[in-house]
Amino acid sequence: MSVPPGQADSADFIPCAHDYQVSCGNCRLNAICLPLALESEDIDQLDRIIQRSKPLQKSQHLYRQADEFESVYAVRSGALKAYRTTDDGREQVTGFYFPGEILGFDGIGNNAHASSAKALETSAICEIPFSSLQKLSSLMPNLQRHFFQLMSREITEDQQLITLLSKNSADERVAALMLSISTRNARRKLSATQFRLPMSRVDIGNYLGLTVETVSRVFSRMQKLSILRVDNKEIEILDPAGLRHMANLSH
Amino acid sequence: MSVPPGQADSADFIPCAHDYQVSCGNCRLNAICLPLALESEDIDQLDRIIQRSKPLQKSQHLYRQADEFESVYAVRSGALKAYRTTDDGREQVTGFYFPGEILGFDGIGNNAHASSAKALETSAICEIPFSSLQKLSSLMPNLQRHFFQLMSREITEDQQLITLLSKNSADERVAALMLSISTRNARRKLSATQFRLPMSRVDIGNYLGLTVETVSRVFSRMQKLSILRVDNKEIEILDPAGLRHMANLSH
DNA sequence: GCGGCGTCTTGATACACGTCAAGACAAGCG
DNA sequence: CGCTTGTCTTGACGTGTATCAAGACGCCGC
């Protein structure tokens, strides 16, 4: 297996032939992924259970809805979307996941994944087998607490999305998503004002409960107002305050 | 403190002068709340940390958004709603909680409650201090697993609501809520076809991302189609199959 | 380079639900 | 009892977003 060429656009990817052997201790994302006061002894234990064998190509699945639940996953580079398929065959995108973020928690409840996860671009993944994680959590109270917190935050974020879908206009929804991506970029020490969207307009619309056309129109409107510069998937936030205003206050 | 009079409409309430001293071992809801293979020894340990001191009157708060997070709570009788207040002062109902169900998980993430919880009618509550729960979880792998599962299910349910809000019509949303309440009633060995809604039309609309007027019109429509009999908060499901059809397939 | 095929944009039209308004009903209280 | 207040219902109308349709753009293989 050779190292895929042209990782230039993936700032989180560590260009090293044996990159899948990085440990949590030296991973530059650990401040996001594991902001814990763990002894290096503890980190070693964690390292031992984590598997880093899965570089995922664009549009490949990490797991599928109804698959048996075995692990949760941390994104090391790239980006993923999670989505569920309803009884009548339609899809609902439930989240986008960027480097340092963890997905798969929705599978614990019934021992089967409640959603599917698909790579939006070439992505490197850390797999964390849940049974090992449970054992380790019993021994390391910090770790147990950390995973309770991660799940709790997922709940909080879902509730924010619920509010967004329930109460906000198309403009507000798109603005909120742009701000969310901007914030998450900043957390990874990337530009908060310039980035490339890994997902399509269809995915954005699906996630926000809007049609592609509406999303497109909102982007055009924002561009006309000089809040954003939009060049296909390339986004530049020209007026952060205006964007925040558009997301929150405008009724 | 005297026992409140007139609990006749609250089927889950155990009419006993010292009812706040029931233990998990003999609580008739434990199959829902704690479906665990726990030794009676373990149950005793759990009993010891749980506090049952809080009978809540209608419209009283169990906790408020931004309150310090200390406990999660199990509903013993009555019903509650959880809601968050957005920056611009509007409210979003994020869930309804019935006997046997546990709420408060959204507070773990940042050590502060991310939502408020308010009693929709007189309710009895079991308080489970989270720090004790964490310690106990480390000792009892089953218990740890159980709470991971509960949180995971909360995530799954939130995602179902996201899908509902994002993809479904007013008819479908209301139908889905009625089915959800029906199912949860059945789980508690109550009628799946006849029940009294503890929440107002405003709450329903808020939860489902609809106005009161729309909710009311949907109920009228359902009544005209002989799917439901609606008498203010009293609901009778006349045509369960029709209701299911209305919730799922109709487009 | 050129053709083909997604993805994205833009415009015209339709409709589901929101908004506004008024009346009906229920509950609490002097 | 009648008054008040809040909740619920029903109707008429307006609007934001979906839908339908067509064209523009970008990407890839040949």
UniProtKB/TrEMBL annotation, chains A, B:
The parts of the chain that form a coiled coil are none
Where, by residue number, does the polypeptide cross the bilayer? none
Task: Show where the HTH crp-type domain sits.
Answer: 168-241
Q: Which residues form the Cyclic nucleotide-binding domain?
A: 34-104
Annotated Gene Ontology cellular components are:
cytosol
Write out the GO MF terms: DNA binding; DNA-binding transcription factor activity
Q: Which UniProt keywords apply?
A: DNA-binding, Transcription, Transcription regulation
Task: Please give the PROSITE patterns that the UniProt record associates with this protein.
Answer: CNMP_BINDING_3, HTH_CRP_1, HTH_CRP_2
Return the SMART domains for the record. Answer: cNMP (SM00100), HTH_CRP (SM00419)
Which top-level group of life is the source organism from?
Bacteria
Q: Does the keyword Mitochondrion apply?
A: no
Q: Looking at the Swiss-Prot or TrEMBL record, what is one Pfam family this protein matches?
A: cNMP_binding
Q: What is this protein called?
A: Fumarate/nitrate reduction transcriptional regulator Fnr
Q: Which organism is it from?
A: Mangrovimicrobium sediminis
The gene coding this protein: fnr
